[in-house]
Amino acid sequence: MGEELLAIIEQIEREKGIKKEILIEAIKAALLSAAKKVIDLKPNEELEIEFDSKTGKIRAFKNKKEITSIDFGRIAASTARQVIIQKIREAEKEVIYNEFQAKTGEIVSGTVYRFERDNIIVDLLGKAEGILLKREQSPKEEFKQGQRIQAYLLEVKKDTKGPQIILSRTHPNFIKKLFELEVPEIYEGIVEIKSISRLPGERTKIAVYSKNDKVDSAGACIGMRGSRVRNVVNELQGERIDIIRYNEDIREYIKAALSPAKVSEIRLDKENQKAEVIVEEDQLSLAIGKHGQNVRLASKLIGWELDIRTKETSRLLPLKEEGAEKEQLFSLEQIPGVGKKLALNLKEAGFSSIQDILRVGVKDLIKVKGIKETKAKKIIEEARRLFKDQ
Asked: 0.70 exceeded by the pTM?
């Protein structure tokens, strides 16, 4: 039995990467527990198990005297293999846990193994299974069984069934790590990612800064003919990425963050980290973006609250607290011609206040259900009149 057991241990060490010493200690502990059940011990007697790592021979000692009874021989033969398998599984789980715990915050690769409800189970190169929860999946991405997949290793939890490896493709750091893989200047620390704001599946803004004047931060991330950023976009299945040069001048930083819209003027409230951004009428929709997407991402990127206006609405609503007070005085239903049903349609389209109405133009309002061009013009006129009369 000794030689066979030792051969098994050495094979497991080679194939599973579990250290021989860990296995031997597990065997000794298991056999000690099993032996105590059949060997009568007095309160002052001690039982020890000895394992010869060279021959694989197992011996038991009671008060330093070797036990050679048939009972112990039978225990060693009948329970060792079963207990060893159990301990090996536990040790293997620990190895897997430690391996993936060390990879937390990195990108891991695998293949789509199966689908459980809305979650995706990922085979991580045969070593373990990871779970990509529904909330960690980009809404516009689709995967098939057997498809290669990359994900950000968010967390590793210990579980009775084994390590639970939580993956994510929506975390902003997933973008960061993808750029580290594609852009040597980021990996080497020459180009730094200062901030990331993301709407998974739709759009991401990433602010980058170069520590070397000779290296263009944005150019390094874009790559020759857009090759680097294109690789990241392809991995994200078409998610749009805006690469912005970080600037310590907050005005210039805001202008860059709101790109591709052109900004005419910026009024700062540094104490409250708010900015009123003035744009031309034809730039308003671009600055705000689809469903407010551009301004929200820009605001999150720089950490300031951005209020986008045209020159006309800016004169009506200066960057002061009283502007907020006026907004509270009026509900959408108070605009002549806007009933409860239309107000509901406006809210569903992202317009929660009269201020939101004044920020957009006719072409944005006609996208709302129940509003045509004439109606849109009327709504804007009445909203302006309410503020002028106030």
From this structure: no
